[in-house]
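Bit of a strange request maybe. I'm writing a small parser for structure token strings and I need a real example to test against, not something I typed by hand. Could someone generate the tokens for this chain?
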Amino acid sequence: MNWHDGSNWSAAVDLNVTQAGGRVHNGAKLPTSPQKIAIGRTRKSASDTEDDMPVSWLLQVAEA
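Reply from user aminoacidic:
Good idea to test on real output. This should exercise your parser:
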């Protein structure tokens, strides 16, 4: 996950999401008013074979 502040993208933050886990929370808060949030799946290792299930989202604030 990373976010865009209108000028720059943040460094990526890795979160471990498991099927049996609940909500994901790493203790960090988003900065005030990010304009975009990118969330995507990355391979956990070279033997990770889930490449046929790419997942990503780009959430963007709608401007009025």
